[in-house]
Design a protein that fits this description.
binds adenosine-5'-diphosphate, two-stranded antiparallel ribbon, binds magnesium ion, Phosphorylase Kinase, domain 1, 11 strands, single chain, Transferase(Phosphotransferase), domain 1
Protein backbone atom coordinates (compact mmCIF):
# COMPACT_ATOMS: atom_id res chain seq x y z
CA UNK A 1 0.00 0.00 0.00
CA UNK A 2 2.70 2.40 1.11
CA UNK A 3 4.75 1.87 -2.02
CA UNK A 4 1.72 2.31 -4.25
CA UNK A 5 0.91 5.61 -2.63
CA UNK A 6 4.52 6.64 -2.98
CA UNK A 7 4.58 5.77 -6.63
CA UNK A 8 1.41 7.60 -7.55
CA UNK A 9 2.57 10.65 -5.62
CA UNK A 10 5.85 10.59 -7.48
CA UNK A 11 3.95 10.27 -10.72
CA UNK A 12 1.77 13.22 -9.81
CA UNK A 13 4.84 15.28 -9.04
CA UNK A 14 6.43 14.27 -12.31
CA UNK A 15 3.25 15.20 -14.13
CA UNK A 16 3.26 18.60 -12.48
CA UNK A 17 6.84 19.19 -13.46
CA UNK A 18 6.19 18.12 -17.02
CA UNK A 19 3.24 20.49 -17.30
CA UNK A 20 5.33 23.27 -15.82
CA UNK A 21 8.03 22.54 -18.36
CA UNK A 22 5.54 22.94 -21.17
CA UNK A 23 4.69 26.38 -19.85
CA UNK A 24 8.33 27.27 -19.43
CA UNK A 25 9.29 26.13 -22.88
CA UNK A 26 6.74 28.30 -24.52
CA UNK A 27 3.76 26.12 -25.27
CA UNK A 28 1.91 29.43 -25.52
CA UNK A 29 2.23 31.43 -28.69
CA UNK A 30 3.33 35.04 -28.64
CA UNK A 31 -0.15 36.55 -28.60
CA UNK A 32 -1.13 34.38 -25.66
CA UNK A 33 2.02 35.36 -23.78
CA UNK A 34 1.30 39.04 -24.34
CA UNK A 35 -2.31 38.57 -23.23
CA UNK A 36 -1.16 36.62 -20.20
CA UNK A 37 1.22 39.41 -19.20
CA UNK A 38 -1.68 41.69 -18.40
CA UNK A 39 -2.95 39.31 -15.70
CA UNK A 40 0.41 39.68 -13.98
CA UNK A 41 0.49 43.45 -14.48
CA UNK A 42 -2.99 43.81 -13.05
CA UNK A 43 -1.92 41.59 -10.12
CA UNK A 44 -4.68 39.08 -10.74
CA UNK A 45 -2.07 36.32 -10.62
CA UNK A 46 1.54 36.16 -9.52
CA UNK A 47 2.47 32.68 -10.71
CA UNK A 48 1.03 30.33 -13.28
CA UNK A 49 1.25 26.86 -11.77
CA UNK A 50 0.18 24.00 -14.06
CA UNK A 51 -2.54 22.50 -16.20
CA UNK A 52 -5.42 20.94 -14.31
CA UNK A 53 -7.61 20.01 -17.26
CA UNK A 54 -7.72 19.99 -21.00
CA UNK A 55 -11.33 20.55 -21.93
CA UNK A 56 -13.17 20.58 -25.20
CA UNK A 57 -12.46 24.19 -26.00
CA UNK A 58 -9.84 25.26 -23.55
CA UNK A 59 -6.89 24.41 -21.35
CA UNK A 60 -7.41 25.12 -17.67
CA UNK A 61 -4.50 26.19 -15.47
CA UNK A 62 -4.27 26.90 -11.80
CA UNK A 63 -2.42 30.05 -10.79
CA UNK A 64 -1.47 31.73 -7.54
CA UNK A 65 -3.57 34.79 -6.86
CA UNK A 66 -1.94 38.22 -7.00
CA UNK A 67 -2.54 41.21 -4.76
CA UNK A 68 -5.36 42.85 -6.74
CA UNK A 69 -8.53 43.79 -4.87
CA UNK A 70 -10.46 41.75 -7.41
CA UNK A 71 -9.03 38.45 -6.19
CA UNK A 72 -9.01 39.29 -2.50
CA UNK A 73 -9.69 36.26 -0.32
CA UNK A 74 -8.58 33.85 -3.04
CA UNK A 75 -5.33 31.97 -2.78
CA UNK A 76 -5.70 30.54 -6.27
CA UNK A 77 -7.12 31.64 -9.59
CA UNK A 78 -8.32 29.46 -12.45
CA UNK A 79 -7.04 30.53 -15.86
CA UNK A 80 -8.98 29.34 -18.89
CA UNK A 81 -7.01 29.52 -22.14
CA UNK A 82 -9.32 29.15 -25.11
CA UNK A 83 -7.76 27.31 -28.01
CA UNK A 84 -7.87 29.26 -31.20
CA UNK A 85 -6.74 26.72 -33.76
CA UNK A 86 -8.86 23.81 -32.62
CA UNK A 87 -11.92 25.82 -31.64
CA UNK A 88 -15.22 24.79 -33.15
CA UNK A 89 -15.77 28.03 -34.98
CA UNK A 90 -19.17 27.18 -36.42
CA UNK A 91 -20.54 25.82 -33.20
CA UNK A 92 -19.50 29.05 -31.49
CA UNK A 93 -21.18 31.18 -34.12
CA UNK A 94 -24.41 29.27 -33.55
CA UNK A 95 -24.59 30.48 -29.98
CA UNK A 96 -23.65 34.05 -30.84
CA UNK A 97 -25.92 34.69 -33.77
CA UNK A 98 -29.31 35.42 -32.25
CA UNK A 99 -27.88 36.71 -29.00
CA UNK A 100 -28.76 40.40 -29.00
CA UNK A 101 -25.53 41.16 -27.15
CA UNK A 102 -23.55 40.12 -30.23
CA UNK A 103 -25.89 41.05 -33.07
CA UNK A 104 -23.91 44.12 -34.14
CA UNK A 105 -20.47 42.59 -33.86
CA UNK A 106 -18.62 41.31 -36.88
CA UNK A 107 -15.79 38.88 -36.31
CA UNK A 108 -13.13 38.88 -38.97
CA UNK A 109 -10.97 35.93 -37.94
CA UNK A 110 -10.97 32.80 -35.86
CA UNK A 111 -9.08 34.64 -33.14
CA UNK A 112 -11.71 37.40 -33.13
CA UNK A 113 -14.47 34.85 -32.65
CA UNK A 114 -12.62 33.17 -29.78
CA UNK A 115 -12.01 36.58 -28.18
CA UNK A 116 -15.73 37.32 -28.32
CA UNK A 117 -16.46 33.87 -26.94
CA UNK A 118 -14.14 34.53 -24.01
CA UNK A 119 -15.77 37.92 -23.36
CA UNK A 120 -19.14 36.20 -23.58
CA UNK A 121 -18.20 33.63 -20.95
CA UNK A 122 -17.01 36.45 -18.68
CA UNK A 123 -20.32 38.32 -19.12
CA UNK A 124 -22.29 35.15 -18.56
CA UNK A 125 -20.44 34.45 -15.31
CA UNK A 126 -21.24 37.99 -14.19
CA UNK A 127 -24.93 37.37 -14.84
CA UNK A 128 -24.73 34.04 -12.98
CA UNK A 129 -23.12 35.82 -10.04
CA UNK A 130 -25.83 38.49 -9.94
CA UNK A 131 -28.44 35.72 -10.03
CA UNK A 132 -26.65 34.09 -7.09
CA UNK A 133 -26.06 30.90 -8.98
CA UNK A 134 -23.32 28.56 -7.71
CA UNK A 135 -20.66 29.26 -10.32
CA UNK A 136 -17.08 30.56 -10.52
CA UNK A 137 -16.64 34.28 -9.91
CA UNK A 138 -15.17 36.02 -12.96
CA UNK A 139 -12.08 38.18 -12.25
CA UNK A 140 -10.82 39.38 -15.60
CA UNK A 141 -10.55 38.48 -19.27
CA UNK A 142 -8.09 39.52 -21.93
CA UNK A 143 -7.94 38.21 -25.46
CA UNK A 144 -8.60 34.49 -25.28
CA UNK A 145 -7.84 34.12 -21.56
CA UNK A 146 -10.34 34.20 -18.70
CA UNK A 147 -9.52 34.35 -14.97
CA UNK A 148 -12.05 33.10 -12.43
CA UNK A 149 -12.32 31.69 -8.94
CA UNK A 150 -11.38 28.10 -8.18
CA UNK A 151 -14.19 25.73 -7.30
CA UNK A 152 -12.71 23.32 -4.80
CA UNK A 153 -10.72 23.15 -1.59
CA UNK A 154 -7.30 24.68 -1.24
CA UNK A 155 -5.43 24.01 -4.47
CA UNK A 156 -7.56 21.00 -5.37
CA UNK A 157 -10.21 21.53 -8.03
CA UNK A 158 -13.55 19.91 -7.22
CA UNK A 159 -14.44 16.71 -9.09
CA UNK A 160 -17.02 16.71 -11.85
CA UNK A 161 -20.48 15.30 -11.15
CA UNK A 162 -19.63 12.33 -13.37
CA UNK A 163 -16.50 11.50 -11.36
CA UNK A 164 -18.19 10.81 -8.06
CA UNK A 165 -20.91 8.73 -6.49
CA UNK A 166 -23.43 11.06 -4.87
CA UNK A 167 -24.54 10.47 -1.33
CA UNK A 168 -27.80 12.36 -1.74
CA UNK A 169 -28.70 12.23 -5.42
CA UNK A 170 -32.33 13.40 -5.03
CA UNK A 171 -31.27 16.47 -3.08
CA UNK A 172 -28.38 17.20 -5.43
CA UNK A 173 -30.69 17.01 -8.44
CA UNK A 174 -33.06 19.43 -6.72
CA UNK A 175 -30.24 21.90 -6.15
CA UNK A 176 -29.06 21.64 -9.75
CA UNK A 177 -32.57 22.32 -11.01
CA UNK A 178 -32.82 25.25 -8.61
CA UNK A 179 -29.56 26.66 -10.04
CA UNK A 180 -30.96 26.32 -13.57
CA UNK A 181 -34.12 28.10 -12.38
CA UNK A 182 -32.18 30.95 -10.76
CA UNK A 183 -30.13 31.37 -13.91
CA UNK A 184 -33.27 31.44 -16.04
CA UNK A 185 -34.77 34.11 -13.78
CA UNK A 186 -31.57 36.05 -14.34
CA UNK A 187 -32.36 35.77 -18.07
CA UNK A 188 -29.68 33.25 -18.94
CA UNK A 189 -29.79 29.67 -20.20
CA UNK A 190 -26.62 27.65 -19.69
CA UNK A 191 -27.11 25.56 -22.87
CA UNK A 192 -24.49 22.90 -22.09
CA UNK A 193 -25.57 21.41 -18.78
CA UNK A 194 -24.17 17.94 -18.28
CA UNK A 195 -22.36 15.78 -15.73
CA UNK A 196 -19.14 17.24 -17.23
CA UNK A 197 -19.98 20.86 -16.55
CA UNK A 198 -21.07 20.52 -12.94
CA UNK A 199 -18.47 20.38 -10.17
CA UNK A 200 -19.22 18.97 -6.73
CA UNK A 201 -17.60 20.85 -3.87
CA UNK A 202 -18.58 19.79 -0.33
CA UNK A 203 -21.73 18.16 -1.69
CA UNK A 204 -22.74 21.42 -3.35
CA UNK A 205 -23.14 21.48 -7.13
CA UNK A 206 -21.54 24.34 -9.08
CA UNK A 207 -22.26 25.11 -12.72
CA UNK A 208 -19.19 25.85 -14.86
CA UNK A 209 -18.34 26.42 -18.54
CA UNK A 210 -20.60 29.33 -19.46
CA UNK A 211 -19.21 30.14 -22.92
CA UNK A 212 -22.24 28.92 -24.80
CA UNK A 213 -24.86 30.30 -22.39
CA UNK A 214 -27.38 32.58 -24.11
CA UNK A 215 -29.76 35.27 -22.89
CA UNK A 216 -33.40 34.27 -22.83
CA UNK A 217 -34.06 36.62 -25.76
CA UNK A 218 -32.08 34.23 -28.00
CA UNK A 219 -34.57 32.56 -30.40
CA UNK A 220 -33.35 29.10 -29.39
CA UNK A 221 -33.14 29.80 -25.64
CA UNK A 222 -36.19 27.68 -24.82
CA UNK A 223 -34.88 24.76 -26.86
CA UNK A 224 -31.56 25.00 -25.03
CA UNK A 225 -33.36 25.12 -21.67
CA UNK A 226 -35.36 21.97 -22.51
CA UNK A 227 -32.19 20.23 -23.61
CA UNK A 228 -30.38 21.22 -20.38
CA UNK A 229 -33.21 19.83 -18.29
CA UNK A 230 -33.50 16.58 -20.22
CA UNK A 231 -29.73 16.07 -20.14
CA UNK A 232 -29.56 16.35 -16.39
CA UNK A 233 -32.70 14.26 -15.87
CA UNK A 234 -31.37 11.46 -18.05
CA UNK A 235 -28.05 11.45 -16.22
CA UNK A 236 -29.80 11.06 -12.85
CA UNK A 237 -32.10 8.41 -14.27
CA UNK A 238 -29.27 6.41 -15.80
CA UNK A 239 -26.92 6.79 -12.82
CA UNK A 240 -29.27 6.78 -9.84
CA UNK A 241 -32.55 5.43 -11.17
CA UNK A 242 -34.33 8.67 -10.35
CA UNK A 243 -37.47 9.18 -12.39
CA UNK A 244 -38.80 12.67 -12.78
CA UNK A 245 -41.39 13.76 -15.26
CA UNK A 246 -39.87 16.24 -17.71
CA UNK A 247 -43.02 18.37 -18.05
CA UNK A 248 -43.33 18.72 -14.28
CA UNK A 249 -39.70 19.71 -13.85
CA UNK A 250 -39.87 22.14 -16.77
CA UNK A 251 -42.84 23.87 -15.16
CA UNK A 252 -41.01 24.22 -11.84
CA UNK A 253 -37.95 25.68 -13.54
CA UNK A 254 -40.10 28.21 -15.39
CA UNK A 255 -41.95 29.27 -12.23
N1 LIG B 1 -13.43 27.42 -11.87
C1 LIG B 1 -12.99 26.17 -11.90
N2 LIG B 1 -12.61 25.55 -10.75
C2 LIG B 1 -12.16 24.27 -10.78
N3 LIG B 1 -12.05 23.52 -11.88
C3 LIG B 1 -12.39 24.08 -13.07
C4 LIG B 1 -12.89 25.42 -13.14
N4 LIG B 1 -13.16 25.70 -14.43
C5 LIG B 1 -12.84 24.59 -15.13
N5 LIG B 1 -12.39 23.61 -14.33
C6 LIG B 1 -11.96 22.25 -14.76
O1 LIG B 1 -11.55 22.29 -16.11
C7 LIG B 1 -12.39 21.45 -16.92
C8 LIG B 1 -12.65 22.14 -18.27
O2 LIG B 1 -13.26 23.40 -18.07
P1 LIG B 1 -14.48 23.90 -18.96
O3 LIG B 1 -14.80 25.29 -18.56
O4 LIG B 1 -15.59 22.91 -18.88
O5 LIG B 1 -13.81 23.91 -20.41
P2 LIG B 1 -14.29 23.31 -21.81
O6 LIG B 1 -15.08 24.39 -22.47
O7 LIG B 1 -13.02 23.06 -22.53
O8 LIG B 1 -15.10 22.08 -21.55
C9 LIG B 1 -13.64 21.22 -16.11
O9 LIG B 1 -14.25 20.00 -16.41
C10 LIG B 1 -13.12 21.27 -14.69
O10 LIG B 1 -12.63 19.99 -14.32
MG1 LIG C 1 -16.71 21.79 -20.23
Amino acid sequence: MGTRMGKSKARARKYKLREQAKVDTGIFDEKTMVNLGKFFNKKIIEKLNFVIARGKEADIYIAEAGSSEKVRGNQFVIMKFFRVETSSFFKMEDYMIGDPRFSRIKATSKYEVVKLWCAKEFGNLEIAGKARVNAPRPFMFNGSILAMSLIGDDATPAPRLRDIELEFPEETLDVILEEIRKLYRGNLVHSDISEYNILMSDNVPYLIDFGQAVVTAHPKAMDFLSRDISNILSYFEKQYGINREFAEVYKTVMK
